[in-house]
Structures
1.
Amino acid sequence: MAVDSEHSVEKVNEQFMFLSGCVFPHERTSSVYAFVIDIGDGFILEDQAVLTPRPLRDVERMLGASQRLIQQMHYLGTYNDTDCVLYVIDRREDPGRFVNAFTANLRTLFELWDSDVWLVAGYAWQIFEWGRNFRFCGRCGVETVIVDGERARRCEQCGLVNYPRISPSMIVRVQKGDEILLAKNAQFKRPFYSILAGFMEPGETLYECVTREVCEEVGVKVKNIRYFDSQYWPMSGSLMLGCVADYDSGEIKIDEKEIEHAAWFKADALPTVPSKRSIAGVMIDAFVMRHSNRKPE
Ligand SMILES: [Zn+2]
């Protein structure tokens, strides 16, 4: 697979110090990152600004002795050598608890937390989703059980095994000389333009997906597709495979269901674009670095 030469400009999440795991270790760290998710309200936080490691006894005190409250408990792994644990709770079982707590979904936390802890929270959310989406077998409806030592749920009746789901998708920077193709999404009302993205279809290769999605969304043909980098994106449970492609032919003709507006932009005259916390932001920034006089930060 060809790799874009500017790949070395930036690595996405290079310093991310999370090691996933699914079995509680024999020796636990004295403090833990406790991710508490209520089945109805999302993340429950005592302090919305940040999540810091807490002594285990404080976490247990926070959750109380009520075993009814805790629906599931999952070991997630370590972040910066500190154990991470997910507690799935149902506040209806203990309405007096967490009355003053702050609730948030992943998107809200993305705005609040400028840190890799958000990515661990994203992992916690995926494990929570897996736990509730595969609690019952999709084939025969029987309640599933967790497989020892694996992040898997198995149906004892038919043997179907379900792992946490990851959806591959592509994100592509289409470029024409010193111009970049940016689009505003019609479905997500966000105040920025970005590069094109879309989920892969069964049977497609990465490059076939890039060709199809670009053609469907903006009516343009591309060539010289090459791989850039990847990033896991927990809000959609997708592994974003970043590519760069050169414009080949055609005029921009948008799919209005998907795209509100798309245009070619010069590197020194960009609209508002995503931050460099996302692979989209990193890829756009790499283009700007190459085609403008801006100095590296
Ligand atoms: Zn089954």
2.
Amino acid sequence: MREFKCQSCGAGIHYEPGTDQLKCPFCGKENPIPKGEAGVEEQNLEEELARVGEEGVVGEVLVVPCEACGAKTTFPPNVTADKCAFCGSPLVTGKSLSQKKVQPHGILPFLVDSQKANQSFARWIGSRWFAPNDLKRHSKNPSNLKGVYTPYWTFDSQTDSPYTGERGDDYWTTEAVSVVRNGRQCIENRRVKHTRWTPTSGRVEHFFDDVLVPASNNLPRKYMEALEPWDLSQVVPYEESYLSGFRVESYSLPLPEGRGLAREKMAQEIRRLVERDIGGDHQRVFQIDTSYSQETFKHLLMPIWIDSYRYGEKVYRFLVNARTGEVQGERPWSVVKIVFAVLVAVAVLVLLLTVVGGN
Ligand SMILES: [Zn+2]
Ligand SMILES: [Zn+2]
């Protein structure tokens, strides 16, 4: 990762969350980040997939692999030893290796700074009963929180889906049934519901815009999804200045697999569209044959604050969406505190029973 220098005094400078500059902590000079005229361009997916494996199309990045969890991260140039953001294991940043990767096209710069993220963590853990005390202590140390740009793919596609199925329409009939009333046999009319099924076929066309797929396998997918939505309208063209002072996780989900997951997401939506197109009261779908065209993609980086902590044998993680401040996390339970609470409850119960029994 490139090192950025203050234009005025030459000191190393970092991106300041929520701004569009690198502010010098020494002389106070504000070094503006150059702004491109163009927006983030969509990339042709077929061309890129055809190129995968070719030399020279992708960029070269130096990543530090974590021996414990396998996460691959790029570090600011001045950092020599640190903890892995994903599992808390110690890392030697000197042991980097070179990898060929598709370069990011767009980035959402950090908006929430480390201080605000830390306050959210302290609030979150403080409001959790039975959280271990050492975790509460851990949350008070700001250096445990790591700012990481995590990788995403987004996909656009025009889809055309011919389908076959059946449409079910409900109708009612009146039927005479024999019932016993007050011991006497009599005939009553009852309304009965039926469904008439008719074969149907048709086609739905739909354009998908920015279907988002996390390209990281280092964080649990359910938490990544819970951190959404991202304000994709605010994505700016990739510019290395935004990375300074932060780590960048390199993607572990390759582009073809990313497309596979995006198509699964699209297929769910297409099925909903087909059912709406069939109409009626019930729908049966037999076959959908989707063809995809005008497929494009983008590789984006999204800002997340991560704190990984070990409790017992397990790794727990606390995540903050550094755009919205949305908090997600796993928390360990303190066995000591729970046992203590149960004992107190039992003691209270025994006391109450004694008092009631004494009267
Ligand atoms: Zn300076
Ligand atoms: Zn790790």
